[in-house]
Write a structure and sequence with these properties.
Elements: H1 16-19, E1 29-31, H2 39-47, E2 51-53, H3 68-72, H4 74-85, H5 88-92, H6 98-118
Parallel strand pairs: 1-2
């Protein structure tokens, strides 16, 4: 898992290059929301032989199909982020520095991962 902090007003697709660096193993599928629906992101993923499963923005002129069954799996990721945000320190960002905040995000993620496998 890779986490990065961007300013709150930054669009999703501007933070894409931070989390999808070339030094990570390539996934086979990229599940993303409409915020990542840009031609440049789709081109980068296809160049890395990754299938982009991204719903189209309403303003997109050229229509692009996607696999609906894979898109439904994105719900699992969204639920995990919801559970992560249930941790009060993560939701309100009490930490002043980015390092301590990201550390607590990692700790909370590990705790959720552990709870998931213990049940």
């Amino acid at each position: 898992m890779r986490t990065e902090i961007t300013p709150g007003q930054t669009s999703d697709h501007l933070g894409f290059d931070l989390v999808m660096a070339d030094n990570l193993p390539s996934p086979s599928v990229q599940l993303a929301d409409r915020g990542y629906d840009t031609d440049s992101i789709r081109a980068k993923m296809e160049k890395r032989d990754v299938l982009p499963v991204i719903p189209m923005r309403k303003s997109r002129k050229k229509r692009i199909g996607m696999d609906r069954s894979l898109c439904r799996l994105r719900n699992l990721v969204e639920r995990r982020f919801n559970k992560l945000k249930n941790a009060r320190r993560v939701a309100t960002r009490y930490h002043k520095t980015a390092e301590s905040f990201l550390g607590f995000v990692d700790i909370t993620s590990i705790r959720l991962w552990r709870c998931h496998f213990s049940t």
